[in-house]
Amino acid sequence: MGRVLPLLVLFLLPALAQSAFAPLKDHPLRKQAEAYLLAAQKGLEAQASPLALNVQGNYARLSYTCTPEALCQSLPEDGKALTLALVLNPFPFGDGADALERARIALRRAELAYRRTLTALQAQAVAAHGRYQEALLGVRIAEKGVELARLALEAAQKRQANPQELREAELSLREAENRLEEARRGLALAQKAAEGLVDPKAPLPEIPPPQGKTPLSLEEARLNLAEARIGEGAALRNLLPTLQGSLNLYPSGNETLSLSLTSRDLKPTLAYTRQDPARQPTVIPNAGQYETKEELRLTLSLTLSPGLFAAYEASQAQVKAAQEALRAAEEQAALEGDTLEHNLKTAQSALALAEARYAAAQKALEEARTRQALGLESLLGVKRAELNLLQAELARLQAQNNHRNALMELYRFYGEILKEVAQ
């Protein structure tokens, strides 16, 4: 049993560490980002659908002028038609390829927005956790200050100090008590600020350095360039002629089978139409009549307009602007990355110094207690050493929090989500 308990504690440690970020799972901004991401995924699925079914119904009310008038009685009063069409999407091309690529870009943007949201939330959570721990330690320091001020007052009373010294000691005690009240209010405020972000009483997990891949701003700039190029291709396609082809078969006067295709997207459309009344044969006077059983139609259209040429030039300008924006983003990302790395190294140096000062304060407290055991140090001196140690501990905690915050800024820069937050 003695071996099982430590193993159980080690097994539970990761779960305990992950629980600090548990409030982020239900944060409204995270839910919003997840909803946008799901919408973008569904939009891509809609564009990538291999087929679509279309149903169309037509009704017409007919009116005639007949000579002789009796002829109108034999003509139909209305016309009805029902069309079932199947639109196939065997491969992306033209307008269809543009729509699919835009949906992919929208999904990628939603993913970047999701990463941006979560990295911002996790940075806020880490900062809030650090502020709470600092406030908690601040209360301990304030309590130690009250204890030290009370001992100083008692010592002044025992040695029958003059009235001025007693008044100063009493004022010092009141100031210490005021600082304690302020520290407690600060602790309550820090706990309230942490609500919905982090469990301030749970330990934070170990935060390793980020992997350092592509910055978020650079990925967004690349997406903008890709979208501008799609617009340029679509504008160029508007300047080209469009070829449309259709093959119609007429098995009977009431039925039509058709296959149509356009060069804009190369999506074949199969359609079946049932109409009433039936088509009548074409009558040639003094010769007879005939019925069309098959029809192949080709249509070539070309639109020339100054607006189309202007739109193409505008799309080229947008591509140029996106390229320059990408260059600017690369330069800015390089500078920002170097700055964040510099800040991290500065925080690491400050943390090492704070650790050394904390160790020195620990050593000073041990020496004060040793001198007290030998009768060479008063209780008041030991309490001062204890207060110095708490202040050194606060400085170390602040340095640790600054180091974590510098790490989290790098996580935001690269859009990297902690595994404890992503779960």
UniProtKB/TrEMBL annotation:
Keyword list (alphabetical) reads: Cell outer membrane, Coiled coil, Membrane, Signal, Transmembrane, Transmembrane beta strand, Transport
Gene3D superfamilies found in the cross-reference section: Outer membrane efflux proteins (OEP)
Q: Which SUPFAM superfamilies match?
A: Outer membrane efflux proteins (OEP) (SSF56954)
Major localization class: membrane
Q: Where in the cell is it found?
A: Cell outer membrane
Segment forming the signal sequence = 1-22
Q: Which residues form a coiled coil?
A: 166-193, 312-407
The answer to keyword Membrane applying to this record is: yes
The record, for InterPro entries, names: OMP_efflux, TolC-like
Family to which the UniProt record says this protein belongs: Belongs to the outer membrane factor (OMF) (TC 1.B.17) family.
Q: What is this protein called?
A: TolC family protein
Give the organism the record lists: Thermus composti
